[in-house]
Every structure is written in structure tokens, then in C-alpha cells.
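task queued by scheduler; priority normal; single chain, no ligands, no partner chains; default sampling; output format set to C-alpha cells
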Amino acid sequence: MSKVTYEVVDRVARLTLNRPEVHNAQDPELLVELDRAWTRAAQDDDVVVILVRANGRHFSAGHDIDSPADKYLIEGKGQVETGYRWEQEHYLGFSRRWRDVHKPSIAAVQGACIAGALNVIWPCDLIVAAEDAYFSDPVVLFGICGVEYHAHTWELGARKAKEMLFTGRRISAHEAHDAGMVNHVVPTEDLDARSMELATTIAAMDPWALAQAKRAVNQTLDVSGQYAALQAGFDIHWTGHANALLRTGQPLLGGVQDVKEHDQARQES
């Protein structure tokens, strides 16, 4: 079964994460399939808008670090170069490619959107969130500065970004909207309909004008330093991995259980 489905409806390519049994956790195969789906949509003349969404209760629980396939760091134990190159391509590299696709893109988010899931939604031009959506990056608990596509400051502003990283707490859909990260918050049961309504409204516009408008905004961000800042953030991210490898021989200082216990404590407080 495909881990990412692809369909075109009313000039909108719908790219759907399809691992609901594990809350759409991202193993390497899912990420490669998603990248191929983005490329397909970019090259499809019948597509004007790209909509990224997910099956199931949650958009994505982030990287599937328990996946048997996700052993590039463990197998390259002690080799910073191995992990750095892999993540440069599959995390930061994929996200940058998706961001720069010339067609407008929308992420439709429900439930959990955790850590590596931010690598999927932040490259999109617009975000529609269900009322039950929440966003978090608890990666500091692993001894890492944050996820690979380190756009926190651009998406949330400096102080809210620091709070997200320093505490690992969840940010609600409404809080994300207030910070400017989310365009619309809609009832959970209306997420599909409302995100498609937005997508088809945009798809009725002239594709060339849309591409030029997107390019103008993205180039403004790049002139302001976003492109260089994302690479710098990724390099800082890798000092965390290198530190963990040096100290323990493993790529992370903390463990999954640390994150689960932290999240549970936050919910109970």
C-alpha cells in the first residue's frame, strides 16, 4: 500500500500521507514517496494548486525513529558525515524543494503535528488547521536544537519560537493562527471541505500570475536571509547529533520515552 496517495480534483493535486496506523509517522519510504508526489504535481500541467493532507486522526507524529528502515544514523555510528549528508538531502533538502515548487501549496492539518511534521507543513504557502490541531517541537529533549527545517523564527517570531523550543509544549491551532503561522482555523469536521474550497478558489487564478506572486514573496524572504538561516539552523542541529555521538555513540542524547513523559506531564499540568 502506498504511504502517500496522489489524486487530482478540480486542478488541485491532493497529496495524502497514508500511514494512519502509526499516526503518519515519517519513515524514509514515506518521505521519498512524498517527494515524488511533489515532483509529479509540479510537472503535471493539469495541476494548479498542491494540497498536502493526511489520513487518520493526526497529521503526523514526526520522524518514525522506531522504524526498522530508519537506521541511517545507527548504522553510521560515530560517522557524522553519513548522517549529515542523509538529513541534508531527505529533511532540509526535500523541504527546500517543496517550498520552491512554483505552484501554490496548502497544508491541511488535523490533530498532532509534531517535530518532523513541521518539515512538511512549513514549506507550504498556506496552512489550514482544524480546531483540534496542535504543533510542537520537543526535539530539545533529544539534545538537538530543533527540527531540520529550522523555520521557527520565521513562522512564529523570535520569542514564541524560543518558547516552543525551550519548553517543548504544544501550540494550539488558535495560538498558531495568532502568531501568523496558520491562515485559517476551521471546525475539525470541515477541514477537508474548507481546505479544498481554498485550493479551488486559488486554482481558478492564472497559473503564471500565481507562480510570479509566489516567487516575489519567497525572494523577499530569501533577500531577508531566510535561505541562509535555514542552512545555518540545520548545521547547528547537527552539532547536537555530533555531541550525542561523541558522548554516547548514539545520535540522540534523550529517548522517545523522555518525550512521551514530558508531553504527558505538560498535559496534566
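post-processing summary
- The longest strand covers residues 4-9.
- Strands lie at 4-9, 12-17, 49-54, 105-109, 112-114, 126-130, 134-136, 171-172, 184-186.
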